Amino acid sequence: xxxxxxxxxxxxxxxxxxxxxxxxxxxxxxxxxxxxxxxxxxxxxxxxxxxxxxxxxxxxxxxxxxxxxxxxxxxxxxxxxxxxxxxxxxxxxxxxxxxxxxxxxxxxxxxxxxxxxxxxxxxxxxxxxxxxxxxxxxxxxxxxxxxxxxxxxxxxxxxxxxxxxxxxxxxxxxxxxxxxxxxxxxxxxxxxxxxxxxxxxxxxxxxxxxxxxxxxxxxxxxxxxxxxxxxxxxxxxxxxxxxxxxxx
Length: 248
Description:
Blueprint: E1 2-10, H1 14-23, E2 29-33, E3 41-48, E4 51-60, E5 74-82, H2 84-99, E6 105-106, E7 125-126, H3 128-138, H4 153-157, E8 163-169, H5 192-204, H6 224-247
Parallel strand pairs: 6-7
Antiparallel strand pairs: 1-2, 1-5, 2-3, 3-4, 5-8
């Protein structure tokens, strides 16, 4: 048997909050990972972090991708054990999606079919939970009796075969730690402004300078916003202390 992992998330983005008002579900995005460290995490979602209306198949990058724009993302991670032959078939199916990623679009219209229990399917188009359910079905391990286009992220949370292995903030998930990706002692203080500008150029404008030093989202798994704000607080406290010393 092999394990795959289904991750349901809530980024707190405007689009996520809008969906939440309709579904009332705590999580409104689903992804599938081939490993427990989430290094091979796949879904249908926005291609650029600042544009929720341009979506398709993506390999989600927790370090530098859209998730890094939402540091307070919460999640639940579920483990599913499937036979090795089904796992290998699942790998091949996802590999085909990767090779043809530009052919796939996000099935925005299909989302409307879930609340009315009517499947709306478009050619080469999926929404996140539809994709996860569909690739499992094609691998020979269907989780649901109904069509994949009627599956919501919340349905995975209620499935008896899925075992919850984590619940909480995405960036507090212990198995995300990897010295190959993160360099906890690289910075004395996180270059928050430079990081945000770099994210804007690479993720929004699609421009990347290969010779420029890349700043990653995590510095020892401390949120850059927290580092930035704490630095400001320390400066204020220091100035306050100097002022009080002079008044004595």
